[in-house]
């Protein structure tokens, strides 16, 4: 097995004059849950469509599970489950019937066990109760669940999921997260795109950040966190005086807010900061050492905020 489940080199897509994806070098480690993160319109869906061979790159290329695409599509695609925008479900068929059609189209599986596969997939996404309902009567969340079930009809080595929690309520979102964790625990590699940082924080081991068509950062999440330097945060009625003390101690990026001063600690021990504040008679109401959250980290990487609320 290759070390990288997905690897692209210079993958690019132009629509007319617009460059939607610009020389993306993806490296998705085998066994990872890779969060493909970026604001709306940053090129995630276009990249995923190229990965799956649904659209042709303008330039560049890639491998899936070590196999060159699209030449090896016929042999590698059966090992891959995908969820991309607009799955072709039939509106007048039920969830079960739709899955039956998709399952029948897969020549690599035994038709005799179709019922078991379909039942298990519907169960995993929590759609058993609505399995007999027509697709056209499904809510957006139910449609999304059915698309996930379709991606998991057979055991997969790699799942590529475009915004898998799109349209789901908070409960559904939690279920999808635990589903992704379970799939990863079973040994699958999962690449999921999202514009929600919380999603990445909670399930992903690795992150790739898209910004205006370019992959601006890619690393294991733990590495990104380790690179994040903690800040000392002082709650006080005299933020300006507190800020002066922080600067004198050598803290950097010192900032003040109403009743608060903060700065990047660097090598300065926190207890020294507290002692210096007390020595300078700054009334300290609270003191904390906080690691930046992912949002701050990514803003610093991309210079742009994310739609964290969804
Ligand atoms: N078929 C197309 N024709 C022209 N432009 C397109 C086409 N598909 C995508 N684009 C453009 O390419 C850019 C990237 O779009 P893409 O859908 O890949 O972004 P995204 O990161 O997936 O965003 P979202 O989270 O909104 O789905 C956008 O500016 C979009 O308008």
Automatic annotation (TrEMBL):
Database matches in Pfam families = ABC_tran
Which PROSITE patterns would you find in this protein's record? ABC_TRANSPORTER_1, ABC_TRANSPORTER_2
**Which key words are in the record?**
ATP-binding, Nucleotide-binding, Transport
Listed Gene3D superfamilies: P-loop containing nucleotide triphosphate hydrolases (3.40.50.300)
Alphabetized InterPro entries for the sequence: AAA+_ATPase (IPR003593), ABC_transporter-like_ATP-bd (IPR003439), ABC_transporter-like_CS (IPR017871), P-loop_NTPase (IPR027417)
| Gene Ontology terms for molecular function | ATP binding; ATP hydrolysis activity
Q: Does the keyword Flavoprotein apply?
A: no
**Region forming the signal peptide:** none
In what residue span(s) does the ABC transporter domain sit?
6-237
Q: Which PANTHER family match?
A: ABC TRANSPORTER, ATP-BINDING PROTEIN
Family note: Belongs to the ABC transporter superfamily.
Q: What is this protein called?
A: ABC-2 type transport system ATP-binding protein
